[in-house]
Amino acid sequence: MKWPGCIKLALACTFSAACLGVTNTFADGGIQVQSFKLTAVDDGYTVSIDSKIELNPTLVQALDKGVVLYFVNKFTLVEPRWYWFDNEVARIKTRTGLRYHALTRQYRLTDNTFSRNFTTLKDALLALQRLRDQPLTIKHELKSNVHYNAILRLWLDLTRMPKPFQVEALGSSAWNLSSDRLEWRMKLPSPEQPFHLFDDQ
Fold first, then answer.
1. Taking the model in full, what pTM does it have?
2. SS3 of 105, please?
């Protein structure tokens, strides 16, 4: 997709800043969006996201104790309105749990549609980092001629964790795992030309 120079520059600056921040923080764990794709299909649109997720020692220790870590991918399309509040027209929000079973010595990923086991944490994270062809939930009519505000963010959801760990997380940055909040303006892609973010394919 060809974008105006101002949009390309804004995205490039946002992505560069994100990369610089991750370089410093990934030693203590972090999440970084590496690519995003919005594709037009027969019955709507699908979203695919590639990310990088690194767990710090605190989170690995929590896994070893049987704590489930929930990771969220959220993408929204918002129609700006000068006369009223902006209107959220479409979104996806996925929540995937990662846990370790000491008895079987396996890691498991689960959400409301699947459950998969892995023999190593590395393999489980590789699968967690790839979201493929997730249907976009359309809340209001989408228009091909409108420039929408797009918002993308990935994070570790502390609200699903046991209360003692939530209290511990309040005073520790080790639990604050989140990507940067990425924002851009875009029109809906055509079936022939998917929309790519941080990807020249």
1. 0.82
2. coil
Provide the 10 A C-beta neighbour count for residue 20: 10
pLDDT in tens, 98-107: 999 999 999 9
Planar angle of CA 23, 67, 93, nearest 5 degrees: 65
* pLDDT tier for residue 15 given thresholds of 50, 70 and 90: very low
Instruction: Copy the structure tokens of residue 8.
Output: 């390309």
User: What's the token pair of residue 103?
Assistant: 């008895």
Euclidean distance between CA atoms 165 and 144, whole angstroms: 45
The tens digit of pLDDT for each residue in 147-183 reads 999 999 999 998 888 777 777 777 678 888 999 999 9
Task: Spell 46-82 as b/e; 16+ CB within 10 A means b.
Answer: bbbbbbebbbbebbeebbeeebebbbbbebbbbbeee
- Cβ atoms of 60 and 104 within 8 Å: the answer is no
> Could you give the CA distance from residue 80 to residue 87 in angstroms, rounded to a whole number?
6
User: What amino acid is encoded at 150 in this protein?
Assistant: A
